[in-house]
């Protein structure tokens, strides 16, 4: 009896999580069934790889890609002088939408039906430096020209 019950349970779980149970979605279809208001379905987003901050020494977040929503619904709050917005997606990209590659971010944007533009990654040119170079002989000083 227990074996029959276990087999029935495994068969149910296999059916529930099988590839036949997954629904094929077309690009842009996710937003239509997710309950997002119509005015937010056709959004413009920017896909970019953020630069390291000036104080960041490690390489923990380098190479990650983010999606940021373009928003024009901003105004300055007269009481405190803060920037206010009526856009519910104004801060979503900065905190949540992080991807390992630009292709993954593009696929996510296409899946939700968003128009996107990709900013080219800026890679700084690093010069080889050594502390000993501060004390190296650089030759005689050049005479001052008059």
Report on the architecture of this protein.
It contains four helices and six strands. The protein is of the alpha+beta class. The chain has a domain of 79 residues: 2-Layer Sandwich (Double Stranded RNA Binding Domain). The strands form two sheets. It has a four-stranded mixed sheet. Strands 3-4 form a two-stranded antiparallel sheet. It starts with a helix and ends in a 28-residue tail after the last strand.
List descriptors.
146 residues, alpha+beta, Double Stranded RNA Binding Domain, four-stranded mixed sheet, two-stranded antiparallel sheet, extended
Short note summarizing the structure:
The chain is of the alpha+beta class and 146 residues long. It is 23% helix and 15% strand.
Indicate the mean pLDDT: 75
What is the number of E strands?
6
How do the SSEs run, as a string of H and E? Answer: HHEEEEHEHE
Lateral arrangement of strands in the main beta sheet: 5-2-1-6
Q: Low-confidence parts lasting 5 or more residues at pLDDT below 50?
A: none
> Cα distance, first to last residue?
106 Å
InterPro entries: NADH_UbQ_FeS_4_mit-like, NDUFS4-like_sf
Family: Belongs to the complex I NDUFS4 subunit family.
GO cellular component, one term: mitochondrial inner membrane
Subcellular location: Mitochondrion inner membrane
